[in-house]
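Is this the right way to post structure tokens for a design question? Let me know if I should format differently. Anyway, here goes:
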């Protein structure tokens, strides 16, 4: 495969996984929040667009806005972990696509 084809395959495979994974996590997390802190989470009407346009930052913002104190530091750890996972997923898919 050419490099352009590998990039297209990587984009086509990883983007739906990344978007659906964040969406599922945010829905699960919002359901587990108490009513008082749920106000700070993304509204249902804008959740999808926030995930699409902001990527991993949407989840980091969600964690920062719904937690207080040291809980907000979890947002930084989450962003670092998600960024590493995205880079690793892209590298694995690109390597697999290069064999074809």
């Amino acid at each position: 495969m050419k490099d352009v084809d590998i990039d297209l395959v990587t984009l086509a495979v990883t983007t739906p996984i990344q978007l659906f994974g964040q969406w599922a996590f945010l829905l699960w997390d919002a359901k587990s929040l108490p009513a008082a802190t749920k106000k700070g989470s993304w509204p249902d009407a804008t959740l999808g667009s926030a995930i699409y346009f902001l990527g991993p930052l949407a989840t980091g913002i969600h964690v920062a806005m719904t937690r207080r104190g040291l809980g907000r530091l979890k947002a930084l750890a989450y962003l670092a972990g998600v960024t590493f996972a995205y880079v690793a997923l892209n590298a694995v898919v690109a390597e697999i696509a290069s064999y074809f």
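Format looks fine. Someone answered above. Worth noting: The chain has five helices and no strands. The chain has one domain: 3-98.
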